[in-house]
Amino acid sequence: MEMIAIERWKRTFKYMRLFLLLAFIGSLLCTLTIAGLIIFAKWKGPPPLAVPQSTIFYAEDGTKIGENHYGGKRYWVKLSDMSQHAIDATIAIEDRKFFDHYGFDLKRIAGAIIADIKAMAKVQGASTITQQYARNLFLSYEKTWWRKIQEALYTIRLEANYEKNDILEGYLNTIYYGHGVYGIEAAANFYFGKSARELTVAEAAMLAGIPKGPSYYSPLVDMELAKKRQRIVLQAMVETNILSKEEAKQAANEPLHFSNGERMKTKTIAPYFQDAVKHMLKTVLGLDEETIEMGGLRVYTTLDVNMQAIAEEKIKETIHSQSNIQVALVAMEPKTGEVKALVGGRDYEKSPFNRATQAERQPGSTFKPFLYYVALQHGFTPSTLLRSEVTTFTLEDGSTYTPRNFNNYYANDTITLAQAIALSDNVYAVKTHLLLGQEKLVSIAKQLGITSKLKQVPSLALGTSPVKVIDMVRAYSTIANGGKKVEPIFIKKVTNYEGKVLYEQRRSDEQILDPALAFVTTHLMTGMFDPTLNDYASVTGQSIISRMTRPYAGKSGTTKTDSWMIGYTPQLVTAVWTGYDRDKTIDRTDEKQYAKHIWVNFMEDSLRARKVATFEPPEGVIGVYVDPHSGKLATTACPTKRLTYYVVGTEPTDYCKDHPAEKKKKKKQKEKDSWFKRLFDWF
What residue stretches are annotated with the Penicillin-binding protein transpeptidase domain (predicted)? Predict the structure, then answer.
């Protein structure tokens, strides 16, 4: 037994020696690694506190339209010239142990890993202020392991060669606060019109919350989210004993007065367009905001600077300077999807909210072409007759719905589909919608690229579900393009500062609509500019026909709060929306006409140097002259005739017999002519 015990002790002692040896070797290796990193950091010396290169945006002709400047370069201020509230708020929310660690917070890293594993996703960050500063200084933003290793080495070099206050000062002078603003001094000036040393607790907490996601937490983008984030920062200041609960509460309730302040960059061309480009860089290329703003990118866009200038000029000329109405305009090439001009509001400085790409508004009758495309799919033709009169529809749930025409004008008779779209008859539209089945309009709208949620209700035919301007342009472009799918394209190519191509646009030729039906739909939309379709009311484009010098297809739309005009030639599709941000009703007659006037003036000036292009029918389409009021083949007795296109086999075969008085008049004229001829022959 004693021998066995001795053997056990020997084995235990042996393992203990092995463990101690391994521990010693591990400790030695760890010490050598740390020593090596410190020696490396000292040998390499302090990294230069230079800023990354600016990202530059170009129009299609090579004109520089914007450049993201690094704000810290122009507004670098000493730590002693910053409000202590700004310093405290930043440390509390970003890195509470900043003054205690050596660049890496191991406990925080471990906690983040555990949180990410539990959530099975990246839910918690662990970067210290030093790491974030290193990331700001590092010129490459590629998401690779090599970049992360180099970032870590930058972090070590910063910690080994700079005092904590130097690192903190550099960080606060280089962090991104949104809207092209870098550094606490520039941010204080931009948001509050004051210097960084003057910031209050409430203002400092608001600014400290923005860098986590400037496109979400900027008070100029979303005040509600910004206030929530501010309260989180204030709570962090309470938890770190910087503020009492009462002080935090007072700061949270303090009214904030925002100012655009002095911008750090010169006036840019098409700022709303550039914001849309940055959004595409994020969503399509997957770049983060720091890369977009500071990665030294060269972004080659689709913008036509001449068209952009015309758009801004026509908006300014048309809308009265004292009016508070807002506007959005998008112009796109239907064959390529390239966005040539974009206006998201009347003054970017006052409101950077992009109404062309972000706002959802009721499209009114501009939604009807989608309905009538479906109708053509299901047996309707431009000559299909339905009765226009006051009609109350009883729905499946027992409720009733009575659509009204503009100014309560009704034919009180049958009208054709061609007339219905030209005169924007609401009764015809709702009848068609209910006959086809309400789900069909929702389906085609989604197919055409409408991303908003659509209510499957009778009034959807009249455009009561809010949509985005950019989506409506995409949908109209698909119809104009003969049914080939069109996606809005803002970017042709992106390179890094070394010229390496990171992205290049490729076109798609996916056919999603029947080309014959798409053309017939287009031709139906030329009717709003054709007075021969007048019956009980004027065609909806009557007020602008005199200014048109080429064929257009289009549709206007009006609700109590929104006014639209969308129209196109084979070369260009343009949508214009006007209305008030707060859903205020448009009561003034001139304001109701703004969208149409801006549209026609923009289209005419933009296309003035371009050859007049006509809508060419594809195979499977036939054009015949019809009486516009009966929809039947025209005869010599018809006072007006209109060339109308049909899918082959659906064109009318009956001749119009609705003009006996005209026939009698022509017969008398013929007899008179014959009498004069006989008299002349006698002489």
Answer: 328-580
